[in-house]
Amino acid sequence: MQYLLNASSGTVVAGGNGLGPGITQLAYPYGFAFDSSSNSLLIANAQTNNIVRWVLGASSWTLVIGSPTGSSGNTSTLLNQPIGITLDPMGNIYVADSANHRIQFFFAGQSNGTTIAGVTGSPGISQHKLNAPCWVIVDTQLNLYVSDTANNQVQFFSHS
């Protein structure tokens, strides 16, 4: 929904066509980030295990990362319940891949990612593991702050 300043009602800008995997639908869009370079929203569709781009004003999305059919996975190209998403100044994408207990990094324009925090499929409480991460934020030095949700903490990962 988009709400203009002082507005009492909003406008649907993405989805609004019921729950589902279709290109005009969203399925549990937990996280999103605005991409000013393309005037679009990058949306983490948790139930369909993918990241989609919805250009503002468009009536459908295009697939950015993950399966177009909603299949989950733990490879470098598949996700399992992506919840949080953020962009860095270069347009690279960081995804809190919650059920895989990891943060995936994707270079701008690429759909093949690298695990940069956590251990794929291995939840834990050590400083190198995550347990159901739900959000990721990148600061100006490209350090990561991750909501390590099931461990009830926020973890810091230094960019080196």
TrEMBL record:
Superkingdom in the source lineage: Eukaryota
Gene3D superfamilies, sorted: TolB, C-terminal domain (2.120.10.30)
NHL repeat residues: 79-109
Molecular function GO labels: zinc ion binding
This protein's UniProt keywords: Repeat
InterPro entries: 6-blade_b-propeller_TolB-like, NHL_repeat, TRIM-NHL_E3_ligases
PANTHER family named among the record's database cross-references: E3 UBIQUITIN-PROTEIN LIGASE NHLRC1-RELATED, PROTEIN LIN-41
Protein name per UniProt: NHL repeat containing protein
The species this protein was found in: Adineta steineri
